[in-house]
Amino acid sequence: xxxxxxxKEKAQRKREEAEVKERLDWINERYGRVPxxxxxxxxxxxxxxxxxxxxxxxxxxxKNLDRRTLELATIAAGSALASEHCLGIHLEQAHxxxxxxxxIMEALLLGAxxxxxxSQAVAFRMFIQMTDSRKxxxx
Length: 139
What we know:
The protein has 139 residues and is mainly alpha-helical.
């Protein structure tokens, strides 16, 4: 009984390893490399396989965005998050999807602007909270 359980677990691990390899090859085929986050998550098939499906659907099979628009959105998000590795992939992908340099620059600027206003909003709220507390106002 124990041997049967061990055999089933080994078979399951082999299936997962094969699935992970297949998906890593798929990613490498599309990006020309496997991003570090993907590579690290692949060490945990139980987390990686659902993550891959979400990523595939969101980034490669969107329901309403065309490829060019999707890549411009990822550039804006990557810019806002200051994610140079994501930008390294998605700048190239946007270009390959037909985005112009001007469109890419605007997406970068939009993301940077959103990051700026987020930090300003947090800082200003904290400043108001501090000044209100000095004046005896409840937050």
